[in-house]
Amino acid sequence: MLAGVTATDLDRLPIGVGLPLREAIHMCTRNPPFNLSQEAFSLIGREDLAAQASARDKEILPQHGPLSKTALKEGDIDDGMEFSDEVRLCRSQTVGKAFNPWIFVGGFLLLASSDHDFIQEQETKLLLMCKRVMALSVGRGMFTLATSRPILTETLPIPTLELTGRAPPRNTVVGLDHVDCPADMRVWPQFHNGVAAGLKIAPGISQIDSTWIVYNKPKELTNEHAGFLMALGLNGHLGNLSYMNLHDYLCKGHELTTVGLLLGISAARRASMDLSTTKVLSIHVDALLPPTSAELDVPHSAQVAGVLGVGLVYEGTAHRRMAEVLLSEIGRPAGPDMENAVNRESYSLAAGLALGLVMLQHGNDALGVSDLKMADQLFQYMVGGQKKPQTGTQKEKFKSPSYLIKEGDTVNIDVTAAGATLALGLMFMKTNNSSVASWLDAPDTQFLLDSVRPDFLLLRLLSRGLIMWDSIQPCKDWVESHIPDIVQKYAFCADPETLKVDDSDIDLQTLSQAKASIIAGCCLAMGMRFAGSANQEAFTCLMHYTKYFKDLLGSAVGEQAGKPTLETCMDVCLISVALVMAGSGNLEVLRITRQLHKRHSADVSYGSHMAVHMSIGLLFLGGGRYHLQAFRHLYVLAAEPRVLVTREVENNTACYVPIQVTLKSTEFYHETTLDMISPCILPEYNLIKKISVVSQRYLPISIDLGTDSSISRCLSKFGTVFVKRRAGYLSYADDPKGYRNLLARTFPEQSDKTDVVRSFSSEPQMVTFAGLFCDVHSVCRKAVESVEAHKDPMALWELKLVLSFYGNAFAKIIAHFGKDVKPLLSEDFVTQCKACLDKTLDHATQTGNIPVSSSLDSLNSSLQAVEFAIHHDLPPPHKQPLSALQGLSLVDAVKNSTIPTPALVRLALP
């Protein structure tokens, strides 16, 4: 397509030939097709699109330049975030620093209290503040997800979770020596701290291999390192760990390391049905072992992690064997003997989630599993009923009853309901199956409501929303439509004494708890439906209910539901609104999360603190949420990189650029255009039709995501668009208001001289050189020398070609491209050049420097006479001697020339 032509070849052409070609190239730079080659973009001067094409073809992004000048100050802990000078990011970083060396604890010494009581009071307050500090790590992991590249010659630093306090005014050290603390209080916070540190590592770094992972292994396995291993699995790096090293880790017998490894390798090989991973998981799941296998002493948490790992490895496959085993494990009975007597709820919930993942969106249409009647069995697990006889390889194992728990012949829904409800939601997700969804409707009578726990009601409404995915509407009317009339009428009754005699059997606590749980379940479904979309209607609705529960917590009528229920529902709504605004850093959500973060009373639980900090993390990321200690980090698998960063192609530095995002028409809205400023979080890629750069300071770019899948894939992988700044403008960071560009300057001599160079080039060497050596006198001297007249007739021919081209091309260029497109040389400039040339030659004939009448007939004419003839298109002497012509014959001979009348008169003179 280019025929081997390069920019160097164009520079070698005469200006009369090269300028028309450059004018054609200039017209192509405005809006070139995005499917050109890298060489074509370089030829037309669009280095920004050339860099984009290189990343598209090679799937390798050019190395980023240095951080912007707004990077972290010296002494701050590097959290991998660019643009960290923004206030909301700084405040979020302050909230999310779980590695502060000290916690400041205040206290007041009462007159009647002793020193011992005062110390105990300080330590009690420190314990309350420690609950908040220990819950920070999960949010920090969200906040710094995939923001750094580790130094491969060093181990990854993991911040220490410090729970020691300082008491003013003397900064006395306060510990937790005189208060009762759970022995395992630090176990899971340390695990989360390790996960947060590992999640900073960006995915796709090929240098992270088994050697580097083992290089980070401490002498004694720790909880932080266990979390670090899980984080490597979540971002895809744990798949590089060799099975020899994996076996070595598992043989150590460290409980949390086993949990982190099982979940990590399962996440790294998600939906792969990898046989080697299945073997590792089977060792930790009794139901997958042969009946004759030796009994292994596997910790309960490792069993739970192994069950969910099976769901991840077989996600969406509808594998019959795995589905059958997981369905049976939801209702696994207690026993035999002393086994399976504690924490049965977590195991059943993990089995339900795993079954939902295996049967994800298959519903009743999956081949080969219809005879299992899974939907009916899950319904029984949810509402209760007679147990079915135990089948499968574990049949003989459970003949011996449990010595601790006696359940009888009915299903214990307190154990099985949560897992079965979520399994139904995931299994029929997005199927819009109204029959199954009706099973999950909220009960509409007092008697039925008494038989359903409020937290199970929340899960039912969530699963119903997952099934009826397309019917979710971002409005309060949709939420209120799920509340039964009896609940709507009596819940949160302001004056219970006004109830009628017929209403004496109404339980206000049950109805109030039901209303709060129904609203929270609907809000969480709405949050997942519009996750990361920044949908304004969904945001308004969810923010309304978040404030609604926050107000109820401080009111007397809220006591009807109880503070724990209201706290849980408020946390769910807060996470839901954070899901919708994920990555946007919305200030209104950040304000309410900071208000809730400041609480450290005994009424605020560890889980509430974690929900608040997860919301802060989601505001600057995006993702989904599952519960259980280690499972809560699985949001990483749902996180989608949708950040768009614009970088100047000259120095690869991130910059602010106004863009327009055109969204496709959907059932909720017509084709819409959003005005944004990059860096920013984009809507879902499948909703975007086109992305355009619309800035006067940068060359325009229009990326149509529907024409080429490679463009969309490259954009989602790297999140980078290269831009090229127009000559005469500074970046928005250097000139936010546009007062310092060349066209806006009233007194250019008072401006910084380096700004002039910076407006044309972003190269640091050029800017430094201009500041040191390029003074005003040298610039002016070079400008005077550049306008001196050229004495070569060939240059005059080239100038005539240029004048002729623009004399005929202006009208055609404007007609084809529009009036807003301007050529390289303006019409006024071309006219001025022609007038100056006419004036110079006319002045030469007037002063006698060109002896026209005597020299034009001679082949040895002077250089000035030749220039006069070339400029006015006079015929050469050997074709038409002009000295022999007079009057009309002379006029007829030069009628095709451009000679003006005064020159024609002088030509006729002897």
Automatic annotation (TrEMBL):
The keyword Transmembrane helix does not apply. InterPro entries: Apc1, Apc1_3rd, ARM-like. Keywords: Cell cycle, Cell division, Mitosis, Repeat. Transmembrane segments: none annotated. GO terms for biological process: cell division. Coiled coil: none annotated. It holds the Pfam family APC1_3rd. Residues 642-726 form the Anaphase-promoting complex subunit 1 beta-sandwich domain. GO terms for cellular component: anaphase-promoting complex. Gene3D superfamilies: Leucine-rich Repeat Variant (1.25.10.10). It comes from the Eukaryota. PANTHER family: ANAPHASE-PROMOTING COMPLEX SUBUNIT 1 (PTHR12827:SF3), MEIOTIC CHECKPOINT REGULATOR TSG24 FAMILY MEMBER (PTHR12827). Belongs to the APC1 family. This is Anaphase-promoting complex subunit 1 beta-sandwich domain-containing protein. It comes from Nematostella vectensis.
